[in-house]
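Justification of computing resources. Each target in the renewal requires a structure prediction run like the one illustrated here; the chain below, 390 residues long, is used simply to show the kind of job we budget for.
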Amino acid sequence: MGPNDVIEIRIPHTLFGVGAINGLGELVNRLSSSRALIVTDPGLVKAGIVATVQAALGSAGLEAEVFDRSGPEAPVSAIEELSRKVKDDGHDLLIGVGGGSVMDTTKAASLLAANPSLTVQDLIEGKPAARSVAKILIPTTAGTGSEWSSTAVVTTDTTDDRTYPYRSSENYPKAAIIDPGLTQDLAAKTTAETGVDALSHAIEAYTSCRANLLSDGYASTAISLISTSLRPAYAKGSLRMEDRYRLSIAAAMAMAAGSLAGVGLAHFMNHALGKKAHIPHGAAVGLMLPYVMEYNLISDPAKFAEVARLLGEKTGRLSTLDAALKSVAAIRRLLSDLGMPQRLSEVGLTEADIPHLVDELITYQAFPIALMNPREVGPEEAAEIYLKAL
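Resulting structure tokens:
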């Protein structure tokens, strides 16, 4: 993208910092809500995170019911159940507390509840939503950055069990609260998977063919922050609040970069892979990332050389191409340090699965790949990348 391209910038009103959750009551009062509903999942109720949110509301003399039946990848069944509850009980504010799946569930239900004729299929097909139920989004992981995004996904678990993205300006919340304290006790595995997801957003946005000055600023900062802080947070995150702090803002910045420039092939390849191998989104994207970087590297070696530098690699005396290759090596070393899978065979896939993965990729992701990925990709190229990852 160049100086003649118009870029739309939109970031929700955000409270950021340790203890930011204590500002929730004031935000709710400002929105004049009379019947708020907390949207979350059972794990966060058990972990005490929802109780922390309720306490923040209680200190302002407020209370809210809890809907705790969100599921992985925002399943349609949960979205439709939540939408019915919002309409039947007259809720005028949704407070999404959780990771990307919870926030995406909140987004979709806010659209369906406010637009009675709108269906999930309409969202998938890109039909615009005229309005939405007001929402506040509170991430509890440093991963998707969905709180700063107009994009969400839904998984059609009631029909073909596929995950579809959809975009709407109505997906933006009225406000977001990014409190690193809510991520303090995340399990090491979750810290790794969500952190790698955020890093993938940043690297793919930075190297996208739609990258621009603004997306580069967000992405490069996010890459540097995650590179510095993901390992310490994984090792003992409960004692590394400074690193949790850095990861929390980096995840939002990485998503802002992705919203401006798009992501790339690693994200598009993960959909069929995650479902086939039954691994989380971050693990699937992370597995494919070094192979995709290696493939895309020829598109702009200087950009990938800068990624290597941002990842902490010493590149001063190297040629541009050799420096670029160090970005791939740095990601592989990070995945190894985090104990994440790096081969399709590690997650139970064989060469026989590759035609299915390629077919899914080309059938459902050809348009965004052509729009965002910095190198052309067809069925043969996709198969080659998957084979290298086997």
